[in-house]
Amino acid sequence: MKRFLILSFLLVFSLPVGFSIAGCAGTNPNNYCNKSGYGYGLKTNQVAAISLGPATTGVSLAYGQTGQLGSPTATNCNGGSESVSFYTYGSSNLNIADVNPANGALCGGTWNRHSPGGIPDFTVCTAPTPQAVASGCTGTAPSLTCVALMTASGAGVTSNTVPVYVHPAVSTIQLSLAAPNGGGSGYTGCFSQNQTSQLDVIAYTSGSTTPFCAPPGTFPANPTIPDCSVNLGSFAFTPVNAGIVTIDNTGLATAHQPGSTGITAANSNVSSTAGSFATCPPATISLQIPSTIPSTDNGTVGSVTPGTPVPLTTTVTDTQGNQITGVALDYSSTNPLEITVGSGGLVSTAFPSTAAITAVCNPPTCNPSLITQIGTLGNGLPIASNSVRITSTGRSSTYLWMASPESEFFEPIDLNTGTVGAPIKLPYKPNSMVIDQGGNNLYFGNYRELMVFSTTTNAISKQDTTVPGVVLAVSPDSSTAVIADQVRQVIYLYTVSTAARTSIGGLGTRAAFSPDGKTLFVTGPNSLYIHNTNSGWSIYPNLPTQTGAGCTLDNSGTSPFCSPDLAVTIPSEGVFLSGPTDTTAYGFCPDTETTPFIYYPPAATVAAATDHLTATTDRLHILGVNPTTLTDTYLGTASSPGVPIESNPDNPLLNGTCIRPNIGQSAGLTFTTQTVPAQTLPVTAASIDQVVASPNSTVAFVTYTAPAGVASPLLPVYTLATTFGSAGTLGTVTLSGTATAPLAGIFSPDNTTFFVGTAGDNLVHYIDVPSLTETQTINPGLTDPSGLPVPVQFLAVKPRPTT
Prior knowledge:
The protein is mainly beta and 803 residues long. It has 4 domains: 49-166, Immunoglobulin-like, CATH 2.60.40; 170-279, Immunoglobulin-like; 282-392, Sandwich (Immunoglobulin-like); 397-421 and 428-800, 7 Propeller (Methylamine Dehydrogenase, Chain H), CATH 2.130.10.10. The protein has 2 helices and 70 strands. The strands form 18 sheets. Strands 2, 6, 11, 12, 13 and 14 form a 6-stranded mixed β-sheet that branches. Strands 24, 25, 29, 32, 33 and 34 form a 6-stranded mixed β-sheet that branches. Strands 15, 16, 17, 19 and 20 form a 5-stranded antiparallel β-sheet that branches.
């Protein structure tokens, strides 16, 4: 009984104490990974898992080659990071792939352990013995799979396994492409954007012609290759241009932007240019005016009021008929001062005018190519869009500058007031005058120096004696002036902002930039000079049909506008050159056998004798004039107007053989042309000075010099036909007063007025373009050093706001 009482006493007094410990000082169940309410098992601050890499791809080692496992990472049961003081590494087969247990250093064979003579352990890797291969690998030579599984252990936890593949040394690697989105191997075509291809790997051992490849199931085996079952583990793939294709760690390639690029494959420290990949190029680039703006001609001709932005819709379709997005297109405007276009196709209309907007996929920023594969599958070639014509309606006031090669003065006039300003004196008489596209600077040439006049400050801003000569052109971005020193026969590219210059030897008389500014064409009596931003200068001697043309610019004023002349097609896929018997076109061609690799072969010959040329902004016409005739050449066909690059009649994207005159190859790129019957010029001309087409491609005027003693007060005007292939109407506008010949002319940006300087009366006549009648004249008052009046032969215009 006494024992029972003692036991009861202990039980009563011990229970509250036990409850107190459990309720106040016990372990919190939330500290455990098991949240069932009981405090037991793995805690949330303990290591739950160890991840060892590369888990997906494994490691590939040649016999006797060393490598390294990735650094392990430890996590708790909630996925948070945990630290482990040290790891121990292990291998499932130390005779095939050994590992340093302290740091994860790998050996494709066995490490030296307990070496005598002071040799540090784990520094010498010995290839596996034949016995080790026979017992530790599967299959029979040469088709063997030798793999060991590696782990890292720490804090009582073992990681996932990482396979290490051991094999003979790899010398070369080749790739084969699987067809798009899971098709069979051996595909040789291009891939549309976002299509995928599983890379098929073929590898060779040193000195062996028998290939072995990646493990079956990891990469598709090429059925034409025998003994393709040696397990090499994973390959690391790197495209030269990741914008064209990306490749994941399983060898799955995904196409992105148009172009072709090389791919390197690496395995066991062997890297090889193993193959190439091509993303399909554009077949068509379609521009359209948004439906919110009234337009005609299938949404490619529209009118807006100044200040109205026009977001063009651009649709790019590749050669497989699939749409492409994000293509790096170059947009250009034929009148960038009045109507500009941004990189995304947003058109800004600052002043009344008309412009043709074009988008071009230009290598290497768009559709680049390996130099050895330019033209293959259409990669490496430029592709142009249709042109969209935007008319910003209304009339604009204009600044007009007038100069003469016989006078040291030039005159400005603000047409808002109609008052001729005070004459501005130049240091020397100019032999040329060119305004930049921004309307900020006038460039005057002279054989003593270049003179730059700022239209903002109304003062001479620069005189540079290092670039004497004739100013032929200024780039569309206003950054570069082209100056021809015809005395020393040097052509300068002059950087306006820094006064830096580069040059090439040659005699140039005319120059024009492509609308995107990437290509400059300079022509002269002897050669065509082309400068491309990607390939530099190219020189092409004039063809026999071009010889005999040309004149020499000087300060006498006798020949301010010289032939041979040139006209850049719109878009800028080619250039036409005038000639005394034929008019010749040069096209674009990639040539892998010459340096530079961009080549401009003859692309068309038109049986028309011309001294001066112009291209209309609607991309349809090349107009040519000589002292007796006017020729209208249509480009393309009625069903496919314009100047697309053609190298194969059945497939324009297949690159043909480029013509190289030194070896007499046939032309691979041609322009389709259709010339309507030439029309007789209804004036008496000794020489032609200009043929000037209106910005809206409706009319063109011809200026000329009359024979000595002959008065010819008629301005020829050609009204273009509205039907493809039809001849336009050639007529004249009668000039008032004592004018003897129209020497030089220029359109106002809004297409409403043509300003023309005339000999005889030394005035500037205003021609109303809609009615083709003269409305008024002004007297610039230009004089020579003796004070005698001289005619205007240089004109420049700039639009100005009317408010």
